[in-house]
Amino acid sequence: MEPRPNYITPAGYATLRAEYERLFGTERPALVETISWAAGNGDRSENGDYIYGRKRLREIDRRLGWLSKRMKAAKVVDPARQEDRARAWFGASVTIADEDDQERTLTLVGDDEADAGAGRIGWSAPLARALRGSAVGDLRRVTLPAGEKEYEVVAVAYPAA
C-alpha cells in the first residue's frame, strides 16, 4: 500500500528543506566534532559533553529521517494555480462564521505546515475536511472536541498567481 501523499505548499516544502539542510549541513557536523573531541578526553561514563552530545545526535538523526520521509512523500501544490477558485480546496483562505456571527479566516495547508494560532489548519483536520469543496454561502457542520458546530462559508480566496 502506497502512503497518502503529503500535500504541501511551495513555502512549506521550502521550510522543511531548509530545516533538513541546517541540521544535516551545520548542526550535525559540529556535534560530531564535539563528540569526537569529548571521546578523546578519556572516561566516557562521566563525560557530559560525550553523553549529551550522543543523545542530541540521536535526536537530530531521528528528525532528519522524519524530514526525509515527509519530503519524499511530499506533493507540492501551488494554491495560486488553483483553477476552481469558487470552492475551498488546498491552499484556500476560507472565512467562516459560526452561529454567533464570529468570523475567522483559516487557510487550508499541508499537515506539516499547520499552525492553528496563525490560522493555518492541516488538510486532514476535521474542520478542513468539512470545508473541502465548499463555496460561499454553504453551511458546514463539523464535530469538534467541544461538540458539534455549524459554520457558514463567508468568503473563499486564493493567493494571486
UniProtKB/TrEMBL annotation:
The residues covered by the Transcription elongation factor GreA/GreB N-terminal domain are 6-76
Instruction: List the molecular function annotations (GO) for this entry.
Output: translation elongation factor activity
Q: Which family does it belong to?
A: Belongs to the GreA/GreB family. GreB subfamily.
The job of this chain, per UniProt, is described as: Necessary for efficient RNA polymerase transcription elongation past template-encoded arresting sites. The arresting sites in DNA have the property of trapping a certain fraction of elongating RNA polymerases that pass through, resulting in locked ternary complexes. Cleavage of the nascent transcript by cleavage factors such as GreA or GreB allows the resumption of elongation from the new 3'terminus. GreB releases sequences of up to 9 nucleotides in length.
Q: What is this protein called?
A: Transcription elongation factor GreB
Which keywords has UniProt assigned to this entry? DNA-binding, Elongation factor, Protein biosynthesis, Transcription, Transcription regulation
NCBIfam families on file: greB, PRK01885.1
